[in-house]
Amino acid sequence: MSVAELEAAEIQLEASTGGLWSDAWYQVIRNPGAILGAFFVLTFLVAAIFAPVIAPYGPKEGNLLLVATGKPPGPSWHHLFGVDLLGRDVFSRILYGARDSLMVGIVSVSIGLSIGLVLGSIAGYIGGWIDSVIMRLMDIMLAIPGLLFAIGIVAMLQPGLYQIMIAIGVVNVPIFARLLRGAILAQRENDFVLAARAVGVKRRAILFSHIMPNAISPVIVAGTLAMGTAIIDVAGLTFLGLGPPDPATPEWGTMLTGANDYLELAPFLAIFPGVAIIISVLGFNLIGDGLREALDPKMRGRA
Amino acid sequence: MSTRADGSGNGNLVEIENLRVWFPIKSGIVLDRHVGDIRAVDDVSFEIKRGETLGLVGESGCGKSTVGRTILRLYKPTSGRISFDGRDISKLREGELRPLRRRMQMVFQDPFASLNPRHSVGRIVGEPLRTHGLANRREAATRVRDLLRTVGLPADAAGRYPHEFSGGQRQRIGLARALALNPDFVVADEPVSALDVSIQAQIINLLEQLQEEFDLTYLFIAHDLAVVRHISDRIAVMYLGWIVEVSSADELYANPLHPYTISLLSAVPIPDPVVERSRESILLAGDLPSPANPPPACRFHTRCPYVQPTRCRDEVPPLRTLGSGHRVACHWAEQIKEGKITPHAVEPVLERPRLELPPAPPPV
Question: What is the per-residue pLDDT across B285-314, written as a single tens digit (0 to 9) for each?
């Protein structure tokens, strides 16, 4: 065999290791839904990062003269989304609010995902009484309604944005743990796992190179979907008054709460933060759907 | 042929004695309670000679796959002895088994489930080499190409994924993986039953060709008697966790002794319309009884067309040797052979799906 042929064979072996993710990427960038979702999320991400540059006004700076009539003026060229009851620019507040909302989504899902993945893989792969103990604990957590559970945790930790992230993360733990455990159990009995054992592959290597890559994709999809729900949950918790102690902090949920009493007088105060929530959640969901299709090995090469 | 480490010179590569594999049945909400056992394999003994192919046949659920997997120690035996090349491996731990895994491999029934869909063919076939540290990256690539060529696949298959191949091609990939470590012994668990008939012959021929080339010993598990006859030197017939008959392939087909084997063979169609129309085929009544609650004494007595009023229902038939190396577990084998006992109708016994549970403990 010539050197060139050897090189070619080597490249083939090499390419095989990253194949799944590069293929998945190839699929995602050809999925119009996923692209639209990524566009939404990226828009908010850019808005969050460059809020001080883009926003025409400060998030907390109000001009009470604008609301001297008692009725906040609606959208205009000076204030794209209108001004709120304290004369603050709604557009600027939504831009700044994206920071907290996106951060909550990402941080809380990361908390839930990391704890859930560890618990789920221990329960699923080790099994036995450890599995029983972990899963009964998860059942107890799932038995409490999510929002109520989160309210309880935040109430225990004092209201605030970080406490909300922890609370939503904890509420998500049993969902991810269960999902991963189920997927691992399904994969563990596969013939290719048995084949790997017959070859003599070590337990840990079987878990990480055979079981996990096949079991993880539903969890990743659920994770992106959970980011959307997390944003809604934050809005709900701050709506209930468990948000940041400084009421001037721009946050979509808080803005909705503030608009509550003035829906007839100034509906745009509720519409704009509401639309921001909807679009960001939709963005995450579209990415999640695209990922689910892309990570299915049977869909490969059908772009 | 590999070195004979045992030095016993008896020519057996694999010997199993009184092998039992019972799977516990558990129930309970919080704590698992042991309520019974599935007796998948119950007191099975046989040996496989070096270089031969032992066919293991039986209905689905009779425990033949469990035997194969337990010999490879993918399952833990409940009791009994498994010796591989003179060494008892029935109690070895996973770490101690690892070096032995190089010498015994498996080919699976379902070529779609036995290959990880996320790994390329090169990675699948190269995994055994990497696991045992037998080759660096460059050597592994060369070896993978050689293996793929050996099983009749193009070398560029290495960079492709299992779903791009047909069932027969995937089975070849599975074979290449099994051969990567240069094993002495291969358990082929129904390797062709998931394939089209035209492809079956190709894979069977490939298996035979590889056996010759690499001095392989096969345990060939199947339910298709025609395929087994073609490839096997000797055949063991299994029924409900038991070996009921063992003999050389030709002898078994010419001269079946156990009523179960007789009825199995009578169900194989003969490609001659005259013979086919005139011969009598025996249909077995009822279902395979539950291995959780097997019939007492002879396990076949509930379906046996030759069942007798004595012994069958109250005495366990041992595996006896009749003639040269022909072993059978039936009290009446001689009488059946001589035609003194003829088949009669059997009332089908319906299998109750529930288990016989032990009586509930008295309330405290």
Answer: 777 888 888 888 899 988 888 888 888 888
Nearest to B315 by CA among B293, B296, B292: B296
Distances B122 to A225, B142, B182, B224 between C-alpha atoms, Å = 35, 10, 17, 32
Answer whether residue A111 is part of any domain: yes
Q: Please give the average per-residue pLDDT across B256-262, as a whole number.
A: 91
Residue A30, domain member (yes or no): no
Q: Which two tokens stand for residue B10?
A: 């008896």
In a domain, A143, yes or no: yes
Q: What would the mean pLDDT of A230-235 be, rounded to a whole number?
A: 82
What's the Cα-to-Cα distance from A146 to each of A134, A142, A168, A237, B239, rounded to whole Å?
19, 7, 8, 11, 53
Secondary structure (3-state) at B197: helix
Structure tokens at A112: 């839930």
Residue A205: list chain B partners with CB under 8 A: 131
Q: Identify the helix (H) or strand (E) that includes residue A61.
A: none
**Which residues in chain B have their CB less than 8 angstroms from residue A200's CB?**
97-98, 101-102, 128, 131-132
Q: Is the dihedral of CA B255, B256, B259, B261 positive or negative?
A: negative
The Cα of B310 is separated from the nearest Cα of chain A by a number of Å equal to 44
CB contacts, 8 Å: B132 with chain A: 200
pLDDT at A21 over 70: no
B350 burial (CB, 10 Å; 0-12 / 13-18 / 19+) is exposed
Say yes or no to pLDDT of B279 above 70: yes
Alpha-carbon gap, residue B209 to B218, rounded angstroms: 12
Element (H, E) at B322: strand B320-322
Residue A16 has pLDDT above 50, yes or no: no
On average, the pLDDT of chain A sits at: 81
Q: Is residue A7 part of a domain?
A: no
Please report the pLDDT score of residue B172 as a whole number: 92
User: Tens digit of pLDDT for each residue in A70-81?
Assistant: 677 777 777 778
* Chain centre to alpha carbon of residue A268: 27
Q: Which residue of A has its CA nearest to B189?
A: A191
| Beta-carbon contacts of residue A34 (< 8 Å; ≥ 6 apart) | A28, A286, A287, A289, A290, A291, A294
Q: What is the distance between the alpha carbons of residues A184 and A125, in angstroms, rounded to a whole number?
A: 7
Amino acid at A125: Y
Q: How many domains does chain A have?
A: 1
CATH number, domain of A270, equals 1.10.3720.10
Q: Residue B22 contacts by C-beta under 8 Å, 6 or more apart in sequence?
A: B37, B38, B39, B40, B41, B42, B78
- Give the residue numbers spanning the domain of A276: 44-299
B window 91-110, beta carbon within 8 A of A: 94, 97-98, 101-102, 104-106, 108-110
Residue A210: list chain B partners with CB under 8 A: 116
Q: Is B72 on the interface with A (CB under 8 A)?
A: yes
- What whole-number distance in Å separates Cα of residue A71 and Cα of residue B53? 92
In 3D, which of B114, B177, B103, B185 has the Cα closest to residue B140?
B177
Chain-chain contact of A297 with B163 (C-beta, under 8 angstroms)? yes
- Alpha-carbon distance of B344 to B227, in angstroms, equals 29
Predicted local confidence at residue B237, as pLDDT: 94
